[in-house]
Amino acid sequence: MSKLRNWILLFIAMFMLLSSVGLSTKAVLAAPEDEDQNPSIIIKAKGTYGNYTKQGVWLPLQVEVTNQGADLQGDLRVTPNENNLEFNTMDYVSSAVIPQGSTKGFNFYIPVQGLTSVNIELVSGDQVLAKQTVKFAFLSNNELIIGLLDRSEEGLAPLNGLKQASWLGPVVTTIKNEDLPEKADLLGFFNVLLFNDVNLKLSKEQSTALTHWVSRGGTLVVGGGSGWQKVLPNLPQELQAVTVSGVETLTLSALPSSLSKPISEAISGPVRIAKLQSSKGKPLFSEQGRPLAIKYPFGEGEVLYLAFDPALEPMSNWTGSEVLWKDLVFAEKPEFGNGLVPGQLGGPFFKGQFNNAYGMANALGNIEDMALPSLRTMAWMIGPYLLLAGLLNYLVLKKLDRREWTWLTVPALSVIFVLLIYFTSFKTRPAEIIAHQINVVEMMPGTSLAKVTAVTGLFAPTHATYHLELPGKHLVSALPNLDGGMRIDPRTNQRPNATLRVEQTPGQTNIDFLQMRSWVMRGFSAVEDASLTGSISGEISFKDNKWLATITNGTQYNFTDGVIVSSPNWFTKIAALNAGEKTETEINLNTNNNLNNGAPIAYQIYNPQVNWQGSGPPPRPQARDMMRQQIFESQLGNGWDPGSESKLLFFGWSAEPLQGGLSIEDNKVKKYYTTLFQVPLHLKFDPERLEVPEGFISGTLLSSQNVGFGPGSIMMQANSEAVYQMQLPEGKFSEMQLNIHKRNGASFSAAVKGYLYNWKTAAWDDINMTSDNTVIKDPTNYFNSGRLVRFKISNQPELQSQSQSQSQFNQPQQFQDQEFFGVNISLSSKGGAL
Questions:
Q1: 803 versus 581: which is more confidently predicted?
Q2: Is the peptide bond before 471 cis (omega within 30 degrees of 0)?
């Protein structure tokens, strides 16, 4: 009995011992990672512009590491937490050497697609020494972002009233002078920058970045008054479009009644005014012969010079300041807002969201060394096998009277041919690293400045990790994952480890392609600021009753060919144009308008199977045309960005690398280059007799409700409407025509109505639209002093029901979606001029 009791006690003791070991092990395994970290290391991080971000911009991230322990050396690693798991995962790293008792700062530049937070880790080998997670408020692209240089919002409260119906903002934030970036895209977070009464100091790189930012659509507001000398003389030379001859004090008695919404309250006192003069800009709100502001267009953006200091009384507390700001900032800028129609999905919603990164990623693989065998090559390989294994094998065995050997000879011949094909392909496959770089050069109108998107792919002949060194500092982002790698770990529902690692240094950018799969192309994208030597210019003019396109290539690049595009429905191709040459081409304006079957414009241009009108079946697309189609898709999106302004563009192709851009200098890498120049063209008019054909004054979508979007079209559901804006050129004409085209069975019925905004009565007028082309009566009612025209189309099925007979009304009615494309205005002076 005592033995049994001893065994029981021993068993209980062993059980308790094992349990305690298990619990101890479990406790260790469940311990939070923070307990393993060094408490003497403190990581702090914030966004340079506050903890905000939005889609399609870059996030400048400031990280500060304090080391209260022993000297340490490791890597600081930043990993974006993106919502889009289709892209290759990237880590951004920086070498960190932090002595005891010191604090060191680091700057990272992170691209934003759906980023909501970033993980920051200080690592040494595989050990995480410290970590921090920073969350960001993800702003809508409909929010107007205003940056104030080196000042608070004090005295600038009226800026918070810069809100229109289709906008959610504004958001006003402060940016320090020393934090102004050296790359234009790092300023892409802002719509407006205000430099007012601060001691502006810009480095050469900051000046270049600011100039490029304005040229790409930014609005720079420069304050005046007594402090004008602090800012204006220190601006980049390209942005100094005004001169100041002194300061005077004026009573602004005419301003309250000059605003778009007249203000009854007078300005309470005199205002210090800088005497602005300019031969380039447009004066705004004159007082006693002095302009209170001058607006200078530069590229796609503008500089607004104020004669007064908006942050000082009496302007800062005047009740009309809010209206004044709207008139100054929003005038002629439809993408900044629209107060006519509450928009469900207004134009600004789409900004930065239409680029198709998949198209660009796929285009990287369309090069000669990666092309699949042609049908002819396959026929030459398979034909002899079929002949030998079929007819010849049969004849030989028949002659030998050994046809039963077919069970042996056919498999043997198959094995021989498979081995032959394998070794042949193995010998001819690329055995070297191949790089394909696609440079898209977007020229800014009226300047030599360009935004360059350099998309680079690396082809891996073997399974390995590849290291790439790029001279200079570059903003590097990921492309979609096309190599078949795992995009998400199904066991943990977490992102996989990074496939690209980027180290950004002042003089060099290092990129590691981690765990590359053999025979795949993995790429990255970088955004650059460029200024071309020479220029590309062009115009379309009306001479001798025909339209001519004239393109002048003043650059050092040879264009193999090109295309002119004005809308989702019109294009014309241009032949080769070498450096220093000029070409003039007669164009048929009606070639494409009636052929658009709903295919995106990239397919219409480069896919011969679309709109094929020749005899027999259409030819197959070649690899080069497929690549160009994919690049065009990436640039123009699904047809045409409905929120973009009407543009006349020339696209020129070159097989030469872009000089001064991102370059791969490794001689062991075989390089291919594809360069696309995008150049805005000028439409030349006779102001005394305007002739503007269909397709050139295209509508910009301001707002929409219950509307879907197709390739260059809108799909109107029941109870839907869309509002467009167009700007007429200066000049005289006698006839104005509104053009809109139907697609996929759409019709102009009682349900579908078209309206033009009457600027004289401030009301929408029904234009009785019954066909694709509607001549407008009394056209002077429908454009304002800024030559703006607004068109509204609505689909209201109840209107059609009311127009039907009672017998028809009692039957259930089916109302289909209505699809339309090509909203534009054409002008003619054949009947004289207005």
A1: 581
A2: no
- Token pair, residue 789, equals 């025209």
Question: Rounded to an integer, what distance in angstroms lies between the CA atom of residue 571 and that of residue 696?
Answer: 11
Amino acid at 408: L
Share of the chain above pLDDT 90, in %: 41
670 SS3 class: strand
Instruction: Label residue 204 exposed, middle or buried (CB < 10 Å: 0-12, 13-18, 19+).
Output: exposed
Residue with token string 């705004």: 284
Cα separation, 78 vs 91, whole angstroms:
6
What are 570's two structure tokens? 């019109």
Closest by CA position to 819, among listed 719, 753, 754, 742: 742
Say how far apart CA 774 and CA 784 lie, in whole Å. 20
CA distance 510 to 523: 14
Strand, helix or coil for residue 649: strand
Q: Are 223 and 307 in contact (CB under 8 A)?
A: no
Percent helix, strand, coil in the chain, to 5, is 20, 40, 40
H or E, element range at 828: strand 818-828
Residue type at position 633? E
Cα–Cα distance, 794 to 658 (Å, whole number): 47
Let me know: does 148 contact 190? Beta carbons within 8 Å.
no
Contact status, residue 120 vs residue 134, Cβ threshold 8 Å: yes
**8 Å CB contact between 423 and 429:** no
Secondary structure E strands in 330-403:
none
Q: How many C-beta atoms surround the C-beta of residue 708 within 10 A?
A: 14
Of the candidates 282, 287, 283, the residue with the CA atom closest to the CA atom of residue 266 = 287
Instruction: Report the amino acid identity of residue 243.
Output: T
The encoded tokens of residue 333 equal 């800028």
Cβ–Cβ contacts within 10 Å for residue 67, how many? 23
CA atoms within 13 A on the CB side of 790: 20
Q: What is the pLDDT of residue 643?
A: 43
Q: For residue range 145-169, list pLDDT tens digits in order.
A: 999 999 999 999 999 877 655 556 6
Mean per-residue pLDDT, 406-411? 78
Q: What are 171's strand-pairing partners?
A: 145
CA distance 498 to 78: 11
**Distance (Å, whole) CA 600 – CA 525:** 24
Cα 208 to Cα 483: distance, rounded to the nearest angstrom: 37
User: Do the Cβ atoms of 729 and 789 come closer than 8 Å?
Assistant: no
Strand partners, 66: 42, 103
pLDDT bin (cut points 50, 70, 90) of residue 75 is very high
Record the tokens describing residue 35, joined without a space: 């307990």
- CA angle, residues 527, 659, 625, in degrees to nearest 5: 75
SS3 36: helix
> Treating both helix axes as pointing N-terminal to C-terminal, what angle do 393-400 and 406-428 enclose, rounded to 10 degrees?
150
Question: DSSP labels for 215-241?
Answer: HTT-EEEE--GGGGGGTGGGS-GGG--
Stated as kind and residue range, the H or E segment containing 376 is: helix 375-386
> pTM here?
0.81
**Tens digits of residue pLDDT in 643-695:** 445 578 899 999 999 988 788 877 778 888 999 999 988 888 888 888 888 87
The Cα 445–Cα 138 span in angstroms is 32
3-state secondary structure string across 726-779: EECCCCCCCEEEEEEEEECCCCCCCCEEEEEEECCCCEEEECCCCCCEEEECCH
pLDDT single digits (tens) 468-519: 888 888 999 888 776 655 555 555 556 667 888 999 887 889 999 887 777 7
The total number of residues shown for the chain amounts to 834
Which residues make Cβ contacts (< 8 Å) with residue 630, sequence separation at least 6? 359, 360, 362, 363, 366, 602
d(CA 654, CA 584): 19
